Fold:
Amino acid sequence: MSKEVLYSSTRGDKGCIRASQAILRGLAPDGGLYVPDHIPHLEKTLGEISGLSYQETAYEVMKLLLTDYTEEELKYCISHAYDSKFDTEEIAPLSEAGGAYFLELYHGATIAFKDMALSILPYLMTTAAKKNSIQNEIVILTATSGDTGKAALAGFAEVPGTRIIVFYPKHGVSPIQEQQMVTQKGQNTCVIGIEGNFDDAQTGVKKIFTDPELAKYMDSKGFQFSSANSINIGRLVPQIVYYVYSYGKLLKEGRIAEGDPINVVVPTGNFGNILAAYYAGKMGVPIAKFICASNSNKVLFDFFKTGEYDRNREFVLTSSPSMDILISSNLERLIYHIAGDSAEADAKYMKELSTDGKYEITPAMRDQLKDFYGGYATEEETFKTIAELFDNASYLIDTHTAVAAAVYDKYKKETGDKTVTVIASTASPYKFTRSVMNALSKGDDSKDDFALADELCAISGVAIPDAVTSIRNAEIRHKTVVAKTEMESAVKSFLGI
Ligand SMILES: *Cc1c(COP(=O)(O)O)cnc(C)c1O
Structure:
């Protein structure tokens, strides 16, 4: 048996807690994120892993990091999460197109990669509540730039002992994303638009979370908060799986030899997905370069180039809204690690970020970022990439994936690097139909997104997923819109307290 992995806050709250407790809390009381005290190495060889199914790979990874869950508990969570909700038995197929491998992470219930983690989080969370004898109802509070919200709603709807409240920027998500959320069924679900952007929503949620008075009041009423955002370690750990799995898949198909390095390209917003790749690397997956792709909100590109993180800039609305983010929450975990697992250093930087909107890391820390490459794609480059890949390789990708593919093209031109590369394909093209049709020069402002989906289907031959057809005429159940200062009262009102 390997040593138990314990979790502590990136900002220094003393004392370590177990995985199930970290999942229940979501965010640490001091506002920090939970990080593992060590990252175990995979027990099986890469060759052995190449023979495993997605579910079996998930168990191999999760048992090492969620050490206080029993084998039976983990296998229960995994088998209920990764089942026929996915439209392919492979769960995450790997498709070769245009000289790269696209890891399609959008075959779940809500057609974006957030399903990969959010279909298992409710099981991990309710199992954690049982293990820790929690009597309170768990209130999941989530800020979304579009995709997390729906995936979390789908995961938690009708789950006994939980309620879920989602805040989204009223004018910052795609029509299909909004329609997906406001038609959500389930008595325990609540969806609220805010007059503000994603960062406002996320900041508001963090504030509600870390208010000790409110926590006490909630407890007296039989409630406690948790988070389904990618700050929750229960979101991060399941994401490590798909990098382990895709390496195994490449190996099995003979695209690489055991031990060969690969590159990964990740379209990045909150830095959760790419951080999972970084952890996969620490667990023994040979990843040479972590290519971090941003859209025009290129705060991470600048950070990797200069060592300074500076959010003082204009927030740009792009055609890849799930990456329209200026505060990438999960970067905090990387900062903590490259500062030598120093909570003191991390807390100092995060304080600077909240007071000045920026911080600059030391040269020694920058040295540890050598395996990261930051790139960004403009709207024009993103659209061109969609069109080229479709015209030349008959492969259709969404706008977020296109940001990654465009950055990868630039990276290849700049470096000549020929390492086998996996691009995280994070959403179905049908989630962002209008933008994809515009990219193919088939946009039509007089048509709604559903009519455009029909046309995209006719052009591409790619079937319209259930997630889109089923919301077409669904009843709108959630209509509340509030100012960003009214988030707390909206929560109380939904809970009836
Ligand atoms: C959330 C999301 C991203 C960004 O992922 P992070 O883990 O926040 O970096 C990229 N693409 C899509 C489609 C998403 O939904």
